[in-house]
Structures are given as structure tokens and as C-alpha cells.
Amino acid sequence: MTQFNKALSIAAVALASLAAARVAAPETESTSLAPRFLETKYLFIFGDSYTATGFNPSGTKPSSSNPIGNPALPGSTFSGGYDWPGYLVTAFNTSQTLLYNFAVGGATIDSNLVAPPGNGIPSFVEQMGQWENSVGSKPSYAPWTSDNTLAGAFFGINDILGKFWDNQDPPVSQMVDRFIGQFQTLYASGVRNFFFVTVPPLDKTPLIAGQSAAGRTRVMTNVNNFNTQLAARLASFESQNSGAKTAVVTSADPFNTAISNPGVYGAADATCEDKKGERCLWWDNLHPATAIHKLLAEAVASAFEGTFF
């Protein structure tokens, strides 16, 4: 078992033990559910462990009392508490915003391009199938429209690191093709507002910071290559699809803000880990804790300020 697979397995076991004890974020974190406007908006999210809240499309649907549907806020996350989608629909919502989050820990963009670190983990392609079989069958599942809906995705981490542990480079061009293909499916179904979150500076995670200089450089090169190609393709996607509005959310900014000033966020240093997600910047050696997630949510909200947030 690779070091990466071991880390994910440990994280999954820790999640199970923490789920029963997890509670909503404290009042000081400004996670009020009270909408400031009356209209309802819909947020469709796809991703991996940096994004997952444990949503099951066959379970309880999002509502005003629990905007992530199931499980209860903050969900089953890899952060120790709220992660960035949870913060979006609590701390940064400007209306009733219902989150349908199909992200699953360990997911890659396409399992046929890069296999996930375990069996049964749905890729972006497979998460889209789940979306089409539930939310996509509007309006019976959710009464969303082109105007009140925003779709976002955060992928690439497992694709890049999965290949890194195999001493290979990921098939970036093919990954980008499949990624944009899923956005094209969403567009064909009526979605018009899109964003993606760039892969963060993985070389600054405790896991990769401990690798050789050559290893860190290899990871950085692949991260930059993927982010650059995907941003360029997203711009083409917008220009080629009438009415489409897109945004690239650069995750490096919130990550670097916290890493450069750990004390501001209650952390002793930039590498410590805390399974409660409160006293360190990291939940484990790969996953950020709540402070970075809140900064990331703020970056997403800023990209759509005045429209969705």
C-alpha cells in the first residue's frame, strides 16, 4: 500500500470515529443559516476529500433547516468540522442556498485515466451520473433553473498524487478534456454558471513538504500544468457556450495566507495537525483544517459576490 493510500485509509477510519462526536461550528464562526434575501439558490458541487460532506442523493434532501441535506451540518468532512462548501451555505450565504454535494474522498476526474486509491470511489464522471439521476431530473428532485444555480468542481489532487507515488506524471491533457466534458454535460442540462477551484500548492502540505526537493518540484510542476491548462480550457468553454459564465478560484491564495501567518489562525506553526480542526492549519498531513477551508469559501464567495453570495 502506498503512503498516499495509507494516509487516505487512516483518514477514513478517523472520520468514522469522529462522526458521532462532531457538532456544528461555534457561534463565533458566523455560520448563521438565516437568509438575507428570500430567493432560493442551488449549489451543485463535485470533488474529492477536500470538498466532501458525505451527502447521499438518496437520503434527506437539502432544506432551510439543513442546507447540505444529509448528514447534518457540518457533514462528514476531512477537516475536523466545516469544510469550504459548508461555509459557503452558512457563513457566506446571502439567500437560502441549498447544497447538493456529490464529492467523495479519494475521487479522481476519471477512473479510467487515474485510478482512485480504493474500490468504489466515484470519479467526477461517475458523480455526474449521480447528479443526472437525481438533481438533473428537474424539477421532480429540485426546482433549479439556469438563473438560480451555480455548479463547481475541485479535482486534481488525487490524480496528481496518485501518479506521483507511482513515479509518473499524470495525463493532464486528458484529465482536462474529461473535466470540461462534465461541465459540458451540465451546460446541456441547463446550468449556466460554473467555477472550478485550482489544485492548491501541494508542496506545502506536511505530506509533500517532507519529500525530496526533486519530488516537491515534480508535484509543483504537475499542479501548475494542470491549473494552467484547465483555466485556458474553461475560458474556451465560456466563449463557445452562449450564456455560460465561469470563474477560476485560485486556492493558492487562501492556503498561502494561512501558511504565512499560522498564529493568526490559532496554529502554533504551519505544519501541525489537529483532528478537531481547530488549533492547527492541518487536519492530517494532507488535508487542511477548518481555518483554510473558511478562507477558501470566502474566495469562492468573492468570485460570485453580488450574484450568488
From TrEMBL:
SUPFAM superfamilies: SGNH hydrolase. It comes from the Eukaryota. GO terms for molecular function: hydrolase activity, acting on ester bonds. Pfam families: Lipase_GDSL. InterPro entries: GDSL, GDSL_Est/Lipase, SGNH_hydro_sf. This is Carbohydrate esterase. Residues 1-26 form the signal peptide. Keywords: Hydrolase, Signal.
